[in-house]
Amino acid sequence: MEFQDALKKRCSCRSFTNERVSDEDVKKIIAAAQNAPLALGDNQTSHLTVVRDPEIMEAIRAACMLKRKDGTLIDPLFGATTMIFFSATDISDDHIEYCNAGCVIENMCMAAADLGLGSCYIWGCLKKLRKNEEALALLKLPEGYEVLSAFVCGYPTEPIEDRVDRDNIAMDIL
Ligand SMILES: Cc1cc2nc3c(=O)[nH]c(=O)nc-3n(C[C@H](O)[C@H](O)[C@H](O)COP(=O)(O)O)c2cc1C
Fold this sequence. Notes:
Elements: H1 3-9, H2 23-34, E1 46-51, H3 54-64, E2 66-67, E3 73-74, E4 82-88, H4 96-114, E5 118-122, H5 126-131, H6 133-137, E6 146-154
Antiparallel strand pairs: 1-4, 2-3, 4-6, 5-6
Helix pairs in contact: 1-4, 2-4
The structure holds flavin mononucleotide.
Flavin mononucleotide binds near residues 11, 14, 102, 120 and 122.
């Protein structure tokens, strides 16, 4: 897909079918993550965890589940069956590792768009996951690492429409 077309197709998908993404597509998404920019090229403090195992995925989903005011549950992973976590250790005072996370996740989102997949940046529900030691242990993170951001991808239940161009970030041209 042309880059400009992929940019138009990249959107936050919030409803996935249960069809599994192929190993080949996951490999391409991982390659996009591995090729993302990292501050000072520091790959020594970064870590990726690719969750494909259905049982682990369901345990993570259960740990992340959010509740509406009326008590009904919301799946914050939107039915996705593939999730990739970005973790880091030795978090610096300026928290630059979170910038690394953003770059890595966005590269994966663009790769997913290029493959015709839906994807979403996952942040909000990680707060719950971090407090759930049992679920966190399933990620087998190396000692001292913490989850900073995550990504889900899959086949969208509805076709992804081309984005209408936005220009809603305030801007000065000097
Ligand atoms: C740092 C970051 C964290 C985000 N966290 C979540 C999240 O936890 N859950 C979610 O559904 N969307 C999340 N999003 C997606 C945004 O809500 C989404 O990008 C925004 O509404 C614009 O929509 P678009 O991605 O379809 O262009 C996150 C996006 C970013 C950049």
